[in-house]
Design a protein that fits this description.
This protein is mainly α. It is built from five helices and no strands. 56% of the residues lie in helices and 0% in strands. Bound molecules: zinc ion (ZN). Zinc ion binds next to loops.
């Protein structure tokens, strides 16, 4: 399938919508991680970025939190509805203490 553009529709930067951009680099994704007190670090290594989340979360169920937030980001992009956005806010506890 050929599309007219592969750029992220939420960015004004003409940035290609890669998986890394979708979950970690897009301003919308960064704001969602910020809702739960996580900072997306700058690194070319995706695994290093997710390991950083593990360190920031400091709980044994960190992977569930990461997966739920990835789901929130993905579904919000696919259907930008208020319900999904509210869900992201509902899981918006912080781990920065
Ligand atoms: Zn984007």
């Amino acid at each position: 399938m050929h599309l007219l553009s592969y750029n992220c529709v939420l960015c004004d930067l003409n940035t290609e919508e890669t998986v890394q951009h979708l979950f970690l680099e897009c301003d919308m994704a960064r704001s969602y991680w910020g809702l739960i007190g996580l900072t997306v670090i700058s690194s070319p290594d995706v695994l290093h970025r997710f390991k950083s989340f593990k360190i920031q979360i400091k709980t044994p169920f960190f992977m569930k939190i990461i997966l739920i937030m990835c789901w929130c980001i993905l579904t919000t992009r696919m259907t930008p509805s208020t319900e999904v956005s509210l869900l992201a806010v509902c899981v918006g506890w912080t781990f920065s203490s």
